[in-house]
C-alpha cells in the first residue's frame, strides 16, 4: 500500500474508528475473544509460507539499510518462530479474561456494597521496531483485555506485520468481532508516529517497543500517557558464594542466547571473592563463545578481552559485546547497578540467602532474579502468554505488560434506596 497522502486526516479516521470500536469491545464476551484468537492462530499457521515470503522482503530491505546482525535476527521469521507466534496466540486465548474480574469487594455501614472490577483502558497505540511478532503479541493482548489497538510497526517489518495483521483480522471476522478492533497503520512514513503521539482524543495510552531512539522520542513528544522502558541495561552479579556450574551456565545464556532482546545481559559484575576462588572462568567462557568482553583491571589479563571505556558501563549493546568488572561484594554491585542500570532486569548468582535478600531488597528494578538468566525477562516466560513490552516506570504497569496490565478498574456501588446522612 502506498503511503497515505493526507496522514493527519487518515490517522484521525483510524483513531475515531478505534474509539468507537473500543466501546463495543469493552463488553465483548470472553468466548468471542477466545474464538478470535484461536482462529487467528490457525490463520497464522495456515498462511505461514505467505508470512515467510513477506518477511523475505523485509530482510532484503533491512540488509539494504545496513541493519546489524542482532537487528536482522530480531526481524527474521522462520517456521519455528511462526510456531512460537501461534503458541503465543493460543496461550493468550487460554488465559482467564481479565475484564470484569472483581479485584476487591466490601460492605459499608451505610448499607452500600462496593466492588472494584477490572475494565479496559480503551484504545492502545503500539509503536514498535523490527520485531514483527509484536504485531501478534500486541494485537492478542489488547483484544484479550477488551481494548482496541492501533499498531504502527517499524519500516523494516512492514510486509511481515501486514501479513500477520491479516491473520488477526481473519480471526476477528471468524468470531463475529469488529475487524477494526486491531488496526495497522498502513504507511512507513514517520509522520504517522508523530500524529499518534498527539491523538489525545482517541488514544488512551501509547506503548513504544524498540530502541533508545524510538522510546526517547516517544517519551519526549507524546501528549498521550506512555508505558515505556528506555533501555534494557541488564546486569548479572556473580557473588562470592555463587555455585560455579550455575554461574557459568547462566552468564553464557544471559549474554549469548539472543543478544538483540531487551533481556540480554549487558554487564557482568564479578565479586573479587568469586574471582579469587575461580579465576576469570566466566570471562574465558564468554570470549570462547565469541563475545567481545570490554573490561578493566585484572580482567584485562584474560586473552581476547579489550579495554572498557567509560561509555561501556550503562550501555545497551544488543550485540555479542558485554562490559565486565570486578566489584567488592554485593553492596558495590548494588551501587554500580543503581548508577548505571535502567531498572529493567538484574540477576544475582549466589547460594547465600541473606545476600540474595539484600540484593532483592535494595534494588528497585522491575525484575530481579536469583540464579536465573536475564533472558527469562519475558511475558511468555512469566505465564502471560505474551507481552506488549517491559515497563520500567512505576505508575500503573511495571515489568512484563500482559493482558491484566492493560486494564484499569472502576467501582460498582450498590445500595437499596440508600441516602447519605
Would you kindly provide a written description of the structure presented here, covering whatever features stand out?
The chain has 421 residues and is of the alpha/beta class. The chain contains 14 helices and 16 strands. The model has no long low-confidence stretch (mean pLDDT 93). The strands form four sheets. Strands 10-9-11-8-7-12-13 form a seven-stranded parallel sheet, sandwiched between helices. The protein has a four-stranded parallel sheet with strand order 5-4-3-6, sandwiched between helices. Strands 1-2-16 form a three-stranded antiparallel sheet, with no helix packed on it. Helix 2 packs across helix 7 (158-174) and helix 3 packs antiparallel against helix 7 (158-174). It has two domains: 7-228 and 393-414, 3-Layer(aba) Sandwich (Aldehyde Dehydrogenase, Chain A, domain 1); 234-376, Aldehyde Dehydrogenase, Chain A, domain 2 (3-Layer(aba) Sandwich), CATH 3.40.309. The longest helix has 19 residues, at 7-25. It has helices at 7-25, 30-46, 48-65, 69-75, 79-94, 133-144, 158-174, 191-197, 212-221, 244-256, 272-278, 281-288, 329-340, 353-362, and strands at residues 102-107, 113-120, 123-128, 148-152, 182-184, 205-209, 234-238, 265-271, 292-295, 306-307, 321-327, 345-349, 367-370, 390-391, 399-400, 407-414. The N and C termini lie far apart (63 Å).
Amino acid at each position: 500500500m502506498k503511503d497515505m497522502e493526507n496522514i493527519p486526516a487518515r490517522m484521525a479516521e483510524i483513531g475515531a474508528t478505534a474509539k468507537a470500536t473500543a466501546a463495543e469491545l469493552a463488553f465483548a464476551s470472553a468466548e468471542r475473544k477466545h474464538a478470535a484468537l484461536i482462529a487467528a492462530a490457525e490463520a497464522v499457521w495456515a498462511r505461514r509460507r505467505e508470512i515467510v515470503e513477506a518477511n523475505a522482503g523485509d530482510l532484503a530491505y533491512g540488509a539494504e539499510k545496513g541493519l546489524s546482525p542482532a537487528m536482522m535476527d530480531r526481524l527474521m521469521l522462520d517456521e519455528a518462530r511462526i510456531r512460537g507466534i501461534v503458541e503465543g496466540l493460543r496461550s493468550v486465548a487460554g488465559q482467564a479474561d481479565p475484564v470484569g474480574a472483581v479485584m476487591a469487594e466490601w460492605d459499608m455501614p451505610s448499607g452500600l456494597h462496593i466492588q472494584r472490577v477490572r475494565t479496559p483502558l480503551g484504545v492502545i497505540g503500539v509503536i514498535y521496531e523490527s520485531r514483527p511478532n509484536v504485531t501478534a503479541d500486541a494485537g492478542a493482548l489488547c483484544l484479550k483485555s477488551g481494548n482496541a489497538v492501533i499498531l504502527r510497526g517499524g519500516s523494516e517489518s512492514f510486509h511481515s506485520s501486514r501479513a500477520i495483521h491479516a491473520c488477526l483480522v481473519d480471526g476477528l471476522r471468524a468470531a463475529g468481532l469488529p475487524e477494526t478492533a486491531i488496526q495497522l497503520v498502513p504507511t512507513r512514513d514517520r509522520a504517522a508516529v508523530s500524529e499518534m503521539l498527539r491523538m489525545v482524543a482517541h488514544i488512551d495510552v501509547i506503548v513504544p517497543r524498540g530502541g533508545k531512539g524510538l522510546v526517547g522520542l516517544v517519551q519526549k513528544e507524546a501528549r498521550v500517557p506512555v508505558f515505556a522502558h528506555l533501555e534494557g541495561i541488564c546486569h548479572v552479579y556473580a557473588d562470592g558464594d555463587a555455585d560455579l556450574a550455575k554461574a557459568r551456565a547462566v552468564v553464557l545464556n544471559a549474554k549469548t542466547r539472543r543478544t538483540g532482546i531487551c533481556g540480554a545481559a549487558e554487564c557482568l559484575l564479578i565479586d573479587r571473592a568469586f574471582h579469587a576462588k575461580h579465576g576469570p572462568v566466566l570471562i574465558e567462557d564468554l570470549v570462547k563463545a565469541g563475545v567481545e568482553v570490554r573490561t578493566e583491571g585484572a580482567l584485562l589479563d584474560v586473552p581476547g578481552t579489550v579495554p572498557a571505556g567509560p561509555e561501556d558501563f550503562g550501555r545497551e549493546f544488543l550485540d555479542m559485546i558485554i562490559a565486565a568488572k570486578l566489584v567488592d561484594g554485593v553492596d558495590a554491585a548494588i551501587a554500580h547497578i543503581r548508577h548505571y542500570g535502567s531498572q529493567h532486569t538484574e540477576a544475582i548468582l549466589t547460594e547465600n540467602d541473606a545476600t540474595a535478600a539484600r540484593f532483592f531488597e535494595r534494588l528497585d528494578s522491575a525484575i530481579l532474579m536469583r540464579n536465573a538468566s536475564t533472558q527469562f525477562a519475558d511475558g511468555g516466560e512469566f505465564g502471560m502468554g505474551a507481552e506488549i513490552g517491559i515497563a520500567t516506570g512505576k505508575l500503573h504497569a511495571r515489568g512484563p505488560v500482559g493482558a491484566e496490565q492493560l486494564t484499569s478498574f472502576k467501582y460498582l456501588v450498590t445500595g437499596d434506596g440508600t441516602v447519605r446522612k
